[in-house]
Amino acid sequence: MKRWLTPAFLTMLTLLVGAELVVRVFFQRSMSGRFEYGYSPTAGFVENADGTVDLVHAGGRPFWPQTFSKTRPPGTFRVMVIGDSVPRGASLATAYPAQIGEQLRATGIIAESFNLAIGGNGSARSEIILRQALDYQPSLVILHADNADEYEDEREYARAQAFKSWHPKNWLMKSLFVRRLYEVKTEQVFWKWVPANVRVLADVNDYGNKALAGENPATRLEWDGRVRKNTAESVALARARGVPILLLTAAREQDDGRGGFYLDDRGMDNLVQPMLGAGVYFLSMKDVLQKTNFAPLFTDGTHLRPDGHALIAAAVVEKLRQEGVIAVRQ
Amino acid sequence: MSFVSWQYALFLPLVALLYWQLPWRGRIFLLIAGSYFFYAMWDARFLALLLTTTVVDYFGALAIAGERQPAAKITGIGLLPLAWLLGCSLFYSTHASIEKWIFVAAAIFPLVYGALYQLLWRLPPEKQRRAFLVLSLCSNLSALGFFKYFDFFAASLETSLAKFGWNPGWTLPHVILPIGISFYTFQSISYAVDVYRGIARPSRDFFTFAAFVSFFPQLIAGPIERRNDLLPQLEKPATFDIADLHHGLRLILTGVFKKIFVADNCALLANYAFDPKTNLNGQWALLGVLAFAFQIYGDFSGYTDIARGSARLLGIRLNRNFNFPYFAASPSDFWRRWHMTLSFWFRDYVYIPLGGNRHGPLKTFRNLWITMLLAGLWHGANWTFVMWGGYYAALLTLYHGTPGLKRLNEPEKNPRWRLVASAALMFAFTLVGWAIFRSRNLEQLAGWFAAFGNWNTGAANWLHPFYWLLIHVLPLLLLQIASWKSRDEVEFAYFPWLLRGLAYAVLFLLVAGSVAPDVEFIYFQF
Question: What's the confidence (pLDDT) of residue A329?
Answer without folding.
Answer: 43
